[in-house]
Amino acid sequence: xxxxxxxIPYSGIQESxxxxxxxxxxxxxxxxxxxxxxxxxxxxxxxxxxxxxxxxDFWKKIDFQFIDWADEVWVVVPNExxxxxxxxxxxxxxxxxxxxxxxxxxxxxxxPKTDKLEEVTL
Length: 122
Description:
The protein is of the alpha/beta class. The chain is built from five helices and five strands. It has one domain: Rossmann fold (3-Layer(aba) Sandwich). Helix 3 packs parallel to helix 5. It is globular, with a radius of gyration of 13 Å.
């Protein structure tokens, strides 16, 4: 079973990011992908509503440990557009850390016609 770290931008689109990440995680884990997915947004968003810090300085060390655990990093391009990836301190750091750790990085976007996640080239 392949272990996937699922990254998505969070700042500025928190609720949407949480919904998109959680939906993608559920789709991947319940489909025929044979993957185990860790989605930091799915895990951390509810915790921030109960007083856990939501800033990158806090989550960085935790997220990097899960990238170490993962076989690959998959980045979801949010419905709001790629600009959110380019502006995301966290996602850029996760991509850089994955590259330094020799982990493959793949990008996915939801196809509006099929309503499925599809790999894309950035």
